[in-house]
Each structure stands twice: as C-alpha cells, then as structure tokens.
Design a protein that fits this description.
The structure holds 2 protein chains of 2 kinds. Chain A folds into 2 domains: 2-244, P-loop containing nucleotide triphosphate hydrolases (Rossmann fold, 3-Layer(aba) Sandwich), CATH 3.40.50; 251-334, ACT domain (Alpha-Beta Plaits, 2-Layer Sandwich), CATH 3.30.70.260. In chain A, 37% of the residues lie in helices and 30% in strands. Chain A is built from 12 helices and 14 strands. The N and C termini of chain A lie far apart (50 Å). In chain A, 40% of the residues are buried. Chain B has one domain (6-219): Orthogonal Bundle (MetI-like fold), CATH 1.10.3720. In chain B, 79% of the residues lie in helices and 0% in strands. Chain B contains 10 helices and no strands. In chain B, α1 crosses α8 (147-165). The chains are: A alpha/beta, B mainly alpha. The A-B interface holds A 52, 54, 75, 77-82, 84, 86, 88, 90, 92-97, 105-106, 108-110, 137, 139, 153, 157, 163 and B 120, 122-123, 125-133, 136, 140-141, 144-145, 147, 218, 220.
C-alpha cells in the first residue's frame, strides 16, 4: 500500500541542515494498522507527511497504491491527497463550519454534487456516533468528539489509506481508547489501511499489527507488535516497551532485591508454550529451591509473553544444571550482583 | 435651538452629513475590498505561506510601508495628479474618495494580514491534506476562519476613515469636518463645531456597536 525506498528528508535551518528522516525503507501492507513510534523530534510527523506529499522527499521514493508520489507535481498530488485521509493531534477542524460542514468540505473539494454530499455526511456522522451533533460547531464538542469529527471528515471520500498523526495525544486515557476503538473499526469494517504515528507504546499495543521504531530519523526496528514487545532488539525499542510492560526489574528494583535476597538472581523469559513452570517443578530434585521475586506476563495479539525474576538457592552445580535446562527453552539472564 | 441658526446651518448640516457618509462608505467599500486582496496576498506570499513568494512579498511589504506612514492630509495633496488622472478632477467629494480609498486599502491590508496570521496553520494543512488547491483555501477557508477578528478590524478601519475624511474640506470635499471648521471654528460659532463633533461621535458609536455585535455572532460568543 505504501512503500518507502531509501527516503531521506532534510530541512535547512539557517545555514545548517537538519536531517529529519534518514534513509528509511519500509513497506506498509494493505489492510493493516501500521504504527510508527518515536520520541518527539524523531521525524515521525515528517515521515507521515511524505506519504501524502505535504512534505517532499529530499531523496528516495515513496509509492502509494502503486503511484510514485515523489514524482508528482503539487497539482498532480491533489487528487492523490483526496484519496488519503488524515487526522491530527489538534484535530484541525474548521471552527467556522459546523460538524456537517467540516465533513462536507473534502466532498466539495472532490467535486461531489450537493444532494450526494448531504447523504454521505449523514452516513459518516452515524458511523462515528455523532449523528445528533451535525449542526454543532467544533467549539461545542469535547476532545474525543472533535477527533471523531476529524475521523469522519478524513473518511469522507472513502480513502483506502488513513494517516493518524498523534491522533490521541491530546486526549485523556479513556477518550484515547474510544478513538482507538473507532480507528480499529475503520480498519476492520471498511478495510482501510491505517498508519498511526505516536509516541505512546500503549497506542501501539492497543491497535497496531506491525510497528516501526524511529530514532533520530532512522528506522531502528521494524516487526510485528508481538515481536517488538516480547523481544525488543534495540535500546530505543526496549525503552518504549518498558513504558508499558514493567516485567523487568529496574536497577533500583535490583538493589532492593539484592538487599533482601541472598541467593542467585536470574531473569527468565516466559513465552507462549514455554515450559518455565515445568522445569522449575524439577528444581527440588537438584536440591535447588526457588522464589519468584519479580516479573509479569502479558498477552498481545492473543499470545503471552513476559519475564520472571527468580531467586535460586542451593548448590552451584544444581543451579547450573537448572539454568541449563531452562536455557534449552528460553532466554535466561543471570542478574549481576 | 442650541444657539444655532438652523435656517442657514440646517441644509448645510444635512449636506455635510450626506457627504461624510458618501465618502466614508465608498472609500471603505473600495478600500476594504482592495485591502482584503492585498492583505491576503501579503499573508499567502510570506515565508511558509500557501503561495510563498519572496519577491512578491518583499515588494508588497515595501509598498505598504511606503504609503502607510504618509499623513492623510499630505497624501491628499501628494497623489493629486493621480486623482486627476483617475477621477478626472482634483477637487470635490469624489476627488477625496480616491485618496481615502487608497489610504484605507493599505491600512486594511495590514489588518487583514495580521488577522489571517492568527489562523491555526494546522487548519490550512488539513485542507491541503484533503487535496484543496491554494485558491480554494484562500476563497473558502481563510476569511471564514478569521471572520470575527476581521469584522472588528474593519470596524476599526471605518472609524479611522471617518477621522481621515474630516480634512476633505481642503480640496472642497465638504463633509462634517469641513462644516465644523468653516462654519464653526472659523466663524467663532462653537455650537456648530460641537454639533459636527457630536454627529461624528454618534456615527462612530453606532458603527462600533454594530461591529461588536456582528463579530460576536461570527465568533459565537
């Protein structure tokens, strides 16, 4: 659906050049929810704007639904943009227009006749659950309602692709979930491919199928959400995962654990179909006793993952044998003293 | 009444009142429209604007700054030859309207520019993301989004134009200012001066009340 090939984008800032996006290659498949996560300033907002040409690449190509958008002139880009929905952190609704007027605007741009516009607007407002608010002005709506108008407006021309730029960052947690559920509905019921830009790992966990981790303009990690959560490979990804999954003890936790436990501390990964429990059941035969001192197990995309930190006591030989058995099935890390 | 010889002053007053309204409204209409176009151009050609164009912006900016500081009484004299060429005469009410409209359009252009700058750029980006052309955005989005402050700006300008029109008398344009100077001040007839001043105050108050009401409606507050 969307393909980045060696895309870079630089901005001149005074006499210097700032690299916003550096040599990014990635493919977003039709029908999926693809998340791009990164800290502020990582280049995610620039990256998403390269898709609909609101920003133009410095080098590389971006292909949307088979069309190389980087080769199009500004006027040739307009019909392409008309077929790509976009929602924003600050909603960007037109304050001078009613809810219905906002949703009708892209239809006017696309040249829909008046009678068809009215029916389409009613249908869209029904879809986002705001049928009653057609004549309200944006000022009269709550944040969550504003974003739902934003979504209705973005979907007006039945786009195959929806770009969501920090679409829940200005909302409280409950409203965030409400908007995320709506995005999921858009994806599942209408088959719209959704690109979600966010700095919140919770958003990724809630709705995304795959995720790319962006760090200083580069994609440092790109995989299924389950893979990135259960097995983050870069420091940036680990830090993001750590914001929502806290199964691993922090250095502060370790100091406390050390003070209270005299045995050897190990952290074992728990995976779907793992046998950590079964192996631990055999610890007694080796003269080893264990205590679970930290950890957590979560589920994502219908699969479990997590880690347990254990205190092991007994003869070193027994403990080593136990660790060997565990390592046959999963990753085990001895926590340094 | 009020020590005014109404038989003489009455008709003069009515005529002066009509002249002021005529000058101010035509100048506001023409200058307001020209200022809207000029201000929109200033806004859209500036850096980061929809029609970003350094040359056009710099030229417009320079011209606006060139005309704006000229006191109206001097502008009236200064562009006399141009007035003659355009209006066909350098004296009379019509001859005042032309420089008045010129002064108004340059002042309005700044007011329009300042108010458009306050529009959230995100709103314009949203329209661009829908595939709207710059022309469509300019025509259907900019003015509605800034309508409330624009109405207040135009109200302010209307009052400034009433102020400027007071000197119309020096080229025979008449109006309330002329009445006050010629029949009041120069003839030591204070009540006539007072009458003209009070009339101008009433016009200004009425326009301000109307402007505030319209702006409140546009802002829905």
């Amino acid at each position: 659906m969307v393909r980045f090939d060696g895309v870079s984008k630089t901005f001149p800032v005074g006499k210097q050049t700032v690299v916003a996006v550096e040599n990014v290659s990635l493919t977003i498949e039709q029908g999926e929810i693809f998340a791009i996560i990164g800290y502020s300033g990582a280049g995610k907002s620039t990256l998403v704007r390269l898709i609909n040409g609101l920003e133009r690449v410095t080098s590389g190509t971006v292909t949307v639904d088979g069309v190389d958008v980087t080769a199009l002139s500004e006027s040739k880009l307009r019909p392409v943009r008309s077929g790509i929905g976009m929602i924003f952190q600050q909603f960007n609704l037109f304050r001078s227009r009613t809810v219905a007027g906002n949703v009708a605007y892209p239809l006017k741009v696309a040249g829909w006749p008046r009678e068809k516009r009215a029916a389409r607007v009613a249908e869209l407002l029904e879809f986002v659950g705001l049928g009653e608010r057609a004549r309200s002005y944006p000022d009269q709506l709550s944040g969550g309602q504003k974003q739902r108008v934003g979504i209705a407006r973005a979907l007006a021309t039945s786009p195959k692709l929806l770009l969501a730029d920090e679409s829940t960052s200005a909302l409280d947690p409950e409203t965030t979930q409400e908007v995320l559920r709506l995005l999921q509905k858009v994806n599942r019921e209408l088959g719209v491919t959704v690109v979600v830009i966010t700095h919140e790992m919770d958003v990724v966990r809630s709705i995304a199928d795959r995720v790319a981790v962006l760090d200083r303009g580069r994609v440092v990690e790109q995989d299924t959400v389950f893979e990135v959560f259960s097995n983050p490979k870069t420091e940036t990804a680990r830090r993001f995962v750590g914001t929502v999954i806290r199964d691993r003890p922090t250095s502060g936790d370790l100091t406390r654990l050390r003070a209270n436990h005299s045995g050897r501390l190990v952290t074992a990964q728990v995976r779907e179909g793992g046998r950590v429990g079964a192996i631990l059941a055999g610890a007694a035969e080796l003269g080893v006793s264990f205590e679970i001192v930290y950890g957590g197990i979560s589920a994502l995309q219908d699969r479990s993952f997590g880690s347990l930190t254990l205190e092991l006591q007994g003869p070193d030989a027994g403990i080593d044998t136990l660790l060997l058995r565990l390592r046959e099935h999963t990753d085990v890390e001895e926590v340094a003293a | 009444m009020f020590g005014i010889d109404w038989e003489t002053i009455g008709p003069l007053y009515v005529r002066a009142f009509g002249q002021t309204l005529y000058m101010v409204s035509v100048a506001m209409l023409a200058g307001g429209l020209a200022g809207l176009v000029l201000g929109t151009l200033l806004y859209t050609t500036r850096r980061g604007g929809l029609l970003q164009n350094r040359l056009v912006y710099n030229v417009l900016n320079f011209v606006v700054n060139l005309i704006r500081p000229i006191p109206f009484i001097l502008l009236l004299a200064f562009i006399g030859p141009l007035t003659l060429a355009v209006v066909g005469t350098q004296i009379g009410t019509e001859a005042v309207i032309f420089p008045l409209a010129i002064a108004a359009s340059f002042a309005v252009s700044r007011i329009v520019e300042q108010n458009l700058v306050t529009i959230d750029p995100g709103v314009i980006e949203a329209a661009r993301a829908m595939g709207a052309s710059p022309l469509r955005i300019i025509l259907t989005l900019l003015v509605p989004e800034a309508l409330g402050p624009l109405i207040l700006g135009y109200t302010f300008m209307f009052i400034a134009v009433v102020d400027a029109s007071a000197v119309a008398g020096i080229i025979g344009g008449g109006g309330l200012g002329d009445l006050a100077i010629v029949y009041g001040y120069q003839r030591f007839n204070y009540p006539v001066t007072l009458l003209a001043v009070l009339t101008i105050i009433v016009i200004v108050q009425l326009v301000q009340v109307l402007g505030n009401a319209l702006a409140r409606r546009a802002l829905r507050r």
